[in-house]
Amino acid sequence: MGAKRTKARPGEGEKLRDEILSAADALLGEAGTDEALTLRAVARRTGVSTPSVYAHFPSRDALLEAVCLRVWDELAHRMREHAVEVADPMRALSRCARVYARFALDHPVQYRVLLMRPSGGSSPGAVACFQYLADATATCVRAGILHGEPEVLAMGLWSAMHGCVSLLIAQPGFGWPEESEALIDTVIRMAGLGTALACRVPRDAIPPSAVLAEDLDGVTAGWAVRAGRTG
Amino acid sequence: MGAKRTKARPGEGEKLRDEILSAADALLGEAGTDEALTLRAVARRTGVSTPSVYAHFPSRDALLEAVCLRVWDELAHRMREHAVEVADPMRALSRCARVYARFALDHPVQYRVLLMRPSGGSSPGAVACFQYLADATATCVRAGILHGEPEVLAMGLWSAMHGCVSLLIAQPGFGWPEESEALIDTVIRMAGLGTALACRVPRDAIPPSAVLAEDLDGVTAGWAVRAGRTG
DNA sequence: ATCGTCAAGTTGACGGTGTCAAGTCAATGC
DNA sequence: GCATTGACTTGACACCGTCAACTTGACGAT
Question: How many other CB atoms are found less than 10 A from the CB of residue B8?
């Protein structure tokens, strides 16, 4: 809309900031790429001249980051919503990871901008993403289920989850399983069980295959029964 | 260098293509960002006019992809070099994953361009990366150490490894362990062991924490001895 | 030896981009 | 009523990818 705007009164400059963010958000949503977020496009859509954006954001990148961070509130909300009433810490962690993946795939553009781009320092989006997983991991450690430094374990889990969703986002043409949920499930199970194991066996690499296969067969025979009963 | 070029003779047009690729490679290396790869900069450095690049590459993106794919030969070479003479399939897989991570961190710009960007189809770089891990995984399956669909297991492993290195690349300011090798080790152990376990326990989620902790304690007590002896 | 041909490169331009310096203009405080 | 000030605009700069049209120069054939 190129409709005329009545100039805001002194003190109401903040209102334009929100309008700019909304216009930017709409652009991202419609185009599905951050390349569509042009200062000129944003300005045109807000009904304002291009350099006016600079009154509220120091650069295009700052605007891009700000508009992408907006949806992070939703991540916080989903995390809170799904974390309650899950007594078992390991199941809570798995739930947390699933919410994480779902959030990333629901907001691929924003996730890509904040987590898959060279960011000078550490992006606030990344810190938030990690924190939720780290909290759930720490709970497992406190409960005696996982052993080791919670932060390191959480980084491992985060890596697995991020790798999964970022590949799904960046390489949609790869021959993934028809349902991306299947891959996410696999990664969650793998990362969860792997973390549980990796923090118990000694640090010097993966045990030899013979040992691995033999011991695992014993363990999983038991699990096959129990998990079937209680799941 | 703006030095004059003697125009190539007919049939020697391919030579310019290589010079362009080299110039582009140097630009990426010096700047550490693909944003420095400007058609004008490439042309200037090659001693040629800007549109001449279009005789060999249909677009800037095509040139960028081509120059990044160049280092993939090195990945192939490293894989072949390190894969030989590792008899234990599980150790070979772990070795393969380590080489993968090392390669990615040694070529962050190229890795980012080919794997961390929205690519219409599936990028050849991604396919290659996956293939090496998939081969090593398939060997483990054939050896009876891992069970399940090799492709799915490999995707899980790939996710974990890619997540690890892509976060290290894109979020260098995050509070990672001082030595990135430590994180890589953790992820490899975690992903490897997790894959070994996840393809054995039934599909319906992670076992309840009580079961998990109890069984794992039994397993890992044995491993602590054996792995210490044979590692 | 000269000419036509044709590949190889160049010139110049177009529309688009982020960004900045200077100017405009209405509402406010005195 | 006037100066001030914040909000916004105008106009420009340098750069970008890309394309159409033009020039150049080496070659084979005559």
Answer: 12
Q: What one-character DSSP code corresponds to residue B116?
A: S
Cβ atoms of A154 and A133 closer than 8 Å:
yes
Q: How far is CA B144 from CA A208, B148, B155, B169, in A?
A: 13, 10, 18, 35
CA–CA dist A32, A91 (Å, integer): 33
Measured between beta carbons, the chain B residues lying within 8 angstroms of A224 are: 201-202
Q: Which tens digits make up the pLDDT trace of A3-29?
A: 446 666 555 668 899 999 999 999 999
CA A70 – CA A59 distance, rounded (Å) = 17
Partners of B197 on chain A (C-beta within 8 Å) are: 190, 193-194, 197, 216, 219-220
Interatomic CA distance for residues B146 and A209, integer angstroms:
9
- B230 vs A228: CA distance, rounded Å: 34
Structure tokens at B48: 């040629």
Task: Note the pLDDT tens digit of each residue in A44-90.
Answer: 999 999 999 999 999 999 999 999 999 999 999 999 988 777 888 99
